[in-house]
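=== RUN LOG ===
request id: a7f3
mode: sequence -> structure
chains: 1
length: 502
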Amino acid sequence: MKYYITDNQNTAISLSEIPEVEYAALYEDLKERLADSSYHVAHYFACPEENRLKFYLILLNDAEHKVMVSSFAMEYYDDIALPSLSALHPQMHPFEREITELYNVEFDSMPWNKPLRFPYNRRNQNSTMDNYPFYTIEGDSLHEVNVGPIHAGIIEPGAFRFICNGENVLHLEIALGYQHRGVENEFTSTTNRLRQTLLAESIAGDSAVSHAVAFTMATEKLMGIHNENLNIERTIALELERMAMHIADTGALCTDVAYQLGQVACEALRTVTINTTQAWCGNRFGKGLIRPCGTNKPLTAEKIDMIRKNIAEVRRRYNEVKEDIESSPTILARFEQCGLVPKAEMLRIGGVGMASRASGAKRDIRSSHPYAAYAQHIDHQMVTMRDGDVMSRLMVRCQEVLQSADYIEQLLANYTPSSLPRPDYTTTLQSEKLSIGLIEGWRGEICHVAITDKEGAIVTYKVKDPSLHNWLGLAIAVRSEGISDFPINNKSFNLSYCGHDL
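=== RESULT ===
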């Protein structure tokens, strides 16, 4: 089996250098490789290429820090069913479901080939949210509970169908796609790179920095541009975002078990953190901070002093909250052994990020495929737990907040502000290339893929948010739990609806 082998720091790949193989060979290779937890798929998608449908696979070798790329093709109207990889490795299910939804490709023995996002350009327009085929179980003692798609408060739209025996959840199915915006097609409908950057930081509002960094990484590889100081400042922004969101989630979990002291303390600390980002760039979520090839908001000596002072104080006070949580019998009684997702299950479904590490699965792009300052200045040691319960997911957050504060201090302690370049929105991208922006957002692995044509215009753009895999982890977590514990399980994952829907 042939792959183009590279790493997360190399430049874009010429399309002509990506091997095109037979699907049978790819199937047999992945059948074996994906049984090894050292491998997982970062992206797998199809796109029209003249009179064919071209498939690209991006496989990550986490142990050897390698990115492996291969492809295959089929006639656009070929009605031959491809053997399903999802039947062997469930981590493939969202990719195969999307390919079927967009291009009507059949996967033989696919166990769960249901609509994924209901995109506006789906092949089967008769497939709608109103006729989504929810899984059912018959039995006199069973009942169904439907939640959504309209929720109270500010929760985004998604439909949750519980099958319960009394109060115990036997099965949860989550149907999404209610706010599909056609984000990927918007990237290819314009050559205005500023607009593309704005699209990237709007994919998921709580991950504006993460998605913008993934986009700029992909585009800068297409220009052959690398700036070490710029990457240091982006890494600081990523860790600030991680701190803010993990602190917010800590407070949300405290809210759901009526631990008011933890709630108000975390609300105050999150405010300090996002206000620090605002003082840096003018926006609390980091919008406007990440731009291709340069920045309009470089760090200054005054901003560095402000960030170091604020983060040190947040670290100190948050550590007190962490210690209070760990010593609270009522919190431990609710969180420990609740919402278990074993390591083996998390690996099977392709779980990533904080949720996977809480189950003992070592998935962290900062370690396995380092980039930016993680490649040269930070020896990242991933935080992992073993139990895979609500408490483990909370403790990963707690430790990562403290770790992120340490990383920010480490990077800023010896950082001398320099004259960074202004953003570049006009340089032509390299033609007929495939470029990958692979980073670790606060939720987990984010992968952006750009393919350019002969003129250097982006003709295919694919986005993978960590929520794509982890929604199934939430469904697994609530099995055999009381339905009243769904809110704390949901909060312990805090997945993105819009990051999935795109």
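=== NOTES ===
Residues 247 and 266 are 6 Å apart (CA to CA).
The chain has a mean pLDDT of 94.
=== END ===
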